[in-house]
Amino acid sequence: MDKKKKLNVKIDEKIGEGIYANFFMITNSPSEFILDFGRIAPGLADAKILSRIFTTPQHAKQLLDVLQKNIDNFEDKYGEIKIPGHKDDKGIGFKV
Known about the structure:
The protein is an alpha+beta fold. Helix content is 28%, strand content 22%. It is extended, with a radius of gyration of 17 Å.
C-alpha cells in the first residue's frame, strides 16, 4: 500500500509578491517549451517580457491539464469566462 508523500513547497518573499501579466507567448522545440509572460498597455507598440519559464513537453502538458481543471472549477463557481473576440463578443475590452 503506497502512502502519498507530503511535498513541502517554499516560496521566496520576492517571488511570492508575484507579477501581473496580460501578454503571453509560447514557443517550443522537440525538447522544451518556453513560456514568456509579459505586460502590454493599450496604445503601446511594445510588450515587455517579465518572466520566462523553460519546461519539458511532459510538464507543459501537465500544466495544460491542471490549468484546464482550474478554469473548469472557476467557471462552475463564477460562470463562463468571456474572451473578447470570441463567440458572443459585444466588443468590450482592449483592442490590439
